[in-house]
Amino acid sequence: MKCPKCGSENVNVQVVTTNKLKNKHRGLIYWFCFGWLIDLMLWFFLTIPRLFVAMFGHKKQKIVQKQHSMAVCQDCGHNWKV
């Protein structure tokens, strides 16, 4: 493998992992069917406990990992996806 910038064959290939944190949200069908009604009833009957859950509750999050190969020229430092 040759570097496209300097033409050197002193190239190192590495696997790079990229992590992204995504929040899970409720879907549109949930809110149209019954989600808004459940939230309204919980706020109406359980105001104080619902307030604590909303402030300190566990938020649903998803971690997405993607892996790809990167080549790095050891002479000039140029890097590119393989």
Largest sheet: 3 strands, antiparallel
Cα gyration radius (Å): 25 Å
- Strand content of the residues, in percent? 35-45%
Instruction: List SSEs in N-to-C order.
Output: EHHEE
- The total number of structural domains is 2
Oligomeric category: single chain
As a percent range, the share of helical residues equals 25-40%
Strand order of the largest sheet: 1-2-3
Quick overview:
With 82 residues, this protein is α+β, with helices and mostly antiparallel strands. The chain has two helices and three strands; from the N terminus they run E-H-H-E-E. The chain folds into two domains: 1-24 and 61-82, no CATH class; 25-59.
Describe the model.
This protein has a three-stranded antiparallel sheet, with no helix packed on it. Strand 2 (61-73) and strand 3 (79-81) form a beta hairpin. The chain is 34% helix and 35% strand. The longest helix is centred in the middle third of the chain and has 18 residues, at 28-45. The protein has two domains: 1-24 and 61-82, no CATH class; 25-59. By secondary structure, it is of the alpha+beta class. The termini are close together. It has helices at 28-45, 47-56, and strands spanning 11-23, 61-73, 79-81. The chain has two helices and three strands.
How are the SSEs ordered, and which strands pair?
Elements: E1 11-23, H1 28-45, H2 47-56, E2 61-73, E3 79-81
Antiparallel strand pairs: 1-2, 2-3
Helix pairs in contact: 1-2
Question: What structural keywords apply?
Answer:
alpha+beta; 2 helices; 34% helix; 2 domains; 82 residues
